[in-house]
């Protein structure tokens, strides 16, 4: 099949080329993400391959359907950026990579927590400048603290296990609680209010859906313990950014670690170091000493990139052969 790969970064090409070398697919790479503006590039292709920030809305889907595209292969797990209703109407299949390395994301979540807590990023800079003072580098022991995990799917449960290893008590919330995890003694399910009120660290691991959009807003952020830490490695839209800025300004929220951001589409995965960034909310956030923002890199390990490329190519091959699409996203 001819596949138009949108939003290509050098590592996408490297790993996709490796995994597709024994397949019959012909992959052509475009730097721009897919949107209504770039959809014409899909002319002559059977498939498009997209990532988290491509804007696969109804208009873009109608445009690629007219050009003869039959399948959208997401090289990620989340599919909140795809209009599934329109894809169905246009008879375009949508496939994804449901799990590439939940360990990569769970481990990175711990990295954000440890960095914010023990301030290794600040110590690194200080020591390079000959500043060996420990002033304002105080952290807290994780041992004995309560961690709230919102979403106990693949990533959430691995993360819960890692935090349990530090000696933390785990409270959890899930739309479909996994009683096995409770029986094994890993965690205890609680209501959102109890989880927020009792947790020293709250970490979000649920998908972005209409129900979870702004799950952390002006009300819920103030339900969190005074000085608690909020971590989001899931999707930016889970947090109302303005609400957390207000809670940070008032000193209620103690720490914020985010690898995802509600308006990240215009920013992340690009080198904008020579550009004036006009996103005032993000610029304000990065000035807080107790905030750590990274550019959607929690998944970014060679294990995950290999798995993403392999499953993406397998999904396309299964479609070409008319096999059952085990990774199809359906309504
Ligand atoms: P998963 O589907 O295995 O688990 C998600 C869990 O959330 C499920 O148990 C589900 O029941 C639960 N859930 C759904 N709606 C809920 C609600 N309203 N309230 C509470 N829980 C709810 O997904 P996963 O593989 O663990 O991934 C979790 C999220 O992590 C993904 O949705 C994706 O957005 C994000 N992610 C981020 C990165 C990154 O690089 N930062 C990489 C991969 C995934």
UniProtKB/TrEMBL annotation:
Keyword Oxidoreductase belongs to the record: yes
Family designation: Belongs to the D-isomer specific 2-hydroxyacid dehydrogenase family.
This protein's record includes keyword NAD: yes
A Pfam entry, by short name: 2-Hacid_dh_C
Domain spans labelled D-isomer specific 2-hydroxyacid dehydrogenase catalytic: 3-329
Stretches assigned to the D-isomer specific 2-hydroxyacid dehydrogenase NAD-binding domain: 110-298
Name assigned to this protein: 2-hydroxyacid dehydrogenase
Xref: CDD domains: LDH_like_2
UniProt KW keywords: NAD, Oxidoreductase
